[in-house]
Amino acid sequence: MGYGRGVSASVSGPHPGPASDREPGPRVVPRQDPRLQWAITLAVVGAAFVTVRPLDTSGRGLLVAALIVVNSVALLARHLPEATLPPRIAFLWLTAGVVAAAALIGVSRTGSGYLFAYFLVGHIGYRLSLRQALSLAALTSLLCTAVLYFRLGPGHEALPWALGLTIGAPVVAGMLSRSRQRAMEAMLSSAESAERAARAEARTAVLTERGRIARDVHDVLAHSLAGINMQLELADALLDTGDLEKVRAANDKAHSMVKESLKQAQWTVHALREDALPLLDSLSAMVESSGHRDALTVTGTVRELPAQVTQNLLRIAQEALTNAARHAPGGHAGVELTFGAASTTLRIRNGPATGEVTAGVGSGMGLIGMRERVALLGGTMTAGPVTEGPDRGGWQVEAVIPG
What we know:
With 403 residues, the chain is of the alpha+beta class. The protein has 11 helices and 7 strands.
């Protein structure tokens, strides 16, 4: 009978392009065609003016005309959006409407005026709370039964009671329509929440990947360029002394660092493209390329680690060895990889510098990048000076990764 009214909501529709690029567009909750609702309302109003009698400009006919107008306004008001009328105003409006509908049944002699009561009761079930709807539907049934009984008089008891009982029945249809509409809104709201969560997760994944790439670029470019810059600054300073041999040595060192940087850049691109790298082989090659032969110690039962863990451990080792070469040139450096029962530990320790430390400016992001990598893997990291043992005065970095 069309007692319910649809409301707008947001639901995913078909969109071209990747899922991460989709944006929610304007969508509508599935509902009955509003044009059909208006057609039914106007048909009820039109039928009342055509069939209800008496209808005149004076006396009882004028009262019937006034009641038809009041009933028509009350029925048309059901098309107003729910947000425009507070619940209390809606209750008063519908109460006044059913009283006017009962009055029209009482004063008219013929016609379809009773249809106003049917449709208003149906909308009561949709619009009001359960207790209010049942109370007002019962009141409508009693009013319509009473006015029709007193109009017809004794001997016609069956018709008033039949009319009263059937007029209260549409409240159930209205309640079912409301329940169906609320269920649909809840489902669409849940779908919207899931879509927002998926978009947020995708954005987080993109930001995480950007951070990872930034750390990889930093590991290669920042350290390499800083070291090359240091050698070029040294060569420039030595030009004033006229010591061409030292200038040539600094220049050769810069060239050597450029070649090493290209090698590391190639290794980084390879690591970004590959799903997994051999941890021990890659770590051993890295330690030897840094000038420390036989400096890798492996303890525990060697096992294969996830690709993400392997990649980040290699990056941490690269960062720590580069820092050691910059801040403690000539000093001993050692790398220990321990496979424990519940964790994997990487420890890089270097002794104090034995050569001249050239002043230079780093990016300041080395330790931050290492801590971020360890945090992403759910591990812990410590870094600080060595205070005892043969490497006293040096530096140690230790990363413990669970699993």
